[in-house]
């Protein structure tokens, strides 16, 4: 396992295949004859140029402890939303839904809650590392029993990573 920044053209030419997870530069790299480049991502084609699509059916489900509903009070916020890609639909939906139910919204789309509301997650917000950002995002998501999994675009055979994040974390995704 290596960082693409440390992979020289000479080293790249020697490998039979390159498997990358969430690496947007892979589709811009030149492969040599016989080499296979494999990209895995839950992101939409807006963020990663696709080389091809294969339908992906779930092959494994993880058992998680359920959200402890007894910790909720009458005025608890039970829905969270985190998004960095703004769309008119997302912003309007969140603001209209807020009229009926409180939503803890983080990120750039409709931020009405600061990450530091959960101190154990706020430290991670400052990190520039994508891995650290996802840790912070997951830390926030598990604080609420419901998560709005609103896609930023519609594509055939694509579902937002927000849906799969919620399933993986044992939270109920709301689409």
From TrEMBL:
Q: What is its EC number?
A: 2.4.1.-
Key word Glycosyltransferase present: yes
Classification via SUPFAM superfamilies = UDP-Glycosyltransferase/glycogen phosphorylase
Q: How does it sit in the membrane?
A: Single-pass type II membrane protein
Question: Broadest EC class?
Answer: transferase
Q: Taking every annotated instance into account, which residue ranges of this chain make up the domain Fucosyltransferase C-terminal?
A: 75-174
Main location class:
Golgi
Q: Where is the signal peptide?
A: none
Please list every transmembrane segment annotated in the UniProt record, as residue ranges: none
- What does the record give as its pathway? Protein modification; protein glycosylation
Q: Would you identify the family this protein belongs to, as annotated?
A: Belongs to the glycosyltransferase 10 family.
Task: Name it.
Answer: Fucosyltransferase
């Amino acid at each position: 396992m290596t960082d693409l920044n440390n992979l020289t053209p000479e080293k790249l030419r020697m490998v039979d295949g390159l498997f990358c997870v969430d690496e947007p530069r892979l589709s811009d790299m030149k492969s040599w004859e016989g080499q296979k480049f494999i990209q895995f991502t839950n992101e939409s084609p807006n963020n990663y140029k696709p080389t091809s699509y294969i339908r992906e059916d779930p092959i494994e489900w993880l058992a998680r402890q359920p959200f402890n509903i007894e910790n909720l009070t009458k005025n608890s916020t039970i829905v969270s939303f985190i998004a960095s890609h703004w769309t008119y639909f997302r912003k309007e939906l969140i603001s209209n839904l807020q009229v009926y139910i409180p939503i803890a919204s983080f990120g750039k789309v409709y931020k009405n809650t600061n990450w530091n509301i959960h101190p154990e997650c706020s430290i991670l917000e400052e990190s520039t590392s994508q891995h650290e950002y996802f840790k912070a995002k997951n830390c926030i998501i598990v604080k609420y029993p419901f998560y709005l999994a609103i896609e930023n675009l519609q594509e055939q055979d694509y579902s937002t990573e927000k849906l799969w994040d919620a399933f993986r974390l044992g939270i109920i995704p709301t689409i």
